[in-house]
Amino acid sequence: MDGSVRASSDASAGPPPYLRGNDNSLVSALKTLLFFTIMMVTLPIGLYFASKAYIFEGSMQMSSSDSYFYAAIVAVLAVHVVLALFVYVAWNEGMPKGKGKED
């Protein structure tokens, strides 16, 4: 009987100690993920239509079928740039920001 009382008091104690203090880093990680998710959706689609209409068909006077092809290449390159930036930011997110030389 004493064990059941102890188990119920442990369950109401709150989150484990290793989760306390990490709320700021969790919010920061979620903000970073949300930012890059929005960029992954909007940037390639926007660059596709903008480059197709203004660069390839407007300035370069390409045919519609050629402009589709080159605009798709621009969109794919934009996806790769966003992914590379996300990996770079995620890799450096946990690094300490010390400016001095550490021994």
UniProtKB/TrEMBL annotation:
It is a multi-pass membrane protein. One of its GO terms (biological process) is vacuolar proton-transporting V-type ATPase complex assembly. It comes from the Eukaryota. Residues 1-22 are annotated as: Disordered. Residues 1-11 have a biased composition (Polar residues). The chain crosses the membrane at residues 33-56, 68-91. Keywords: Cytoplasmic vesicle, Endoplasmic reticulum, Membrane, Transmembrane, Transmembrane helix. It is found in: Endoplasmic reticulum membrane; Endoplasmic reticulum-Golgi intermediate compartment membrane; Cytoplasmic vesicle, COPII-coated vesicle membrane. Pfam families: VMA21 (PF09446). GO terms for cellular component: endoplasmic reticulum membrane; endoplasmic reticulum-Golgi intermediate compartment membrane; ER to Golgi transport vesicle membrane. The keyword Flavoprotein does not apply. Required for the assembly of the V0 complex of the vacuolar ATPase (V-ATPase) in the endoplasmic reticulum. Belongs to the VMA21 family. HAMAP family: VMA21. This is Uncharacterized protein. It comes from Monopterus albus (Swamp eel).
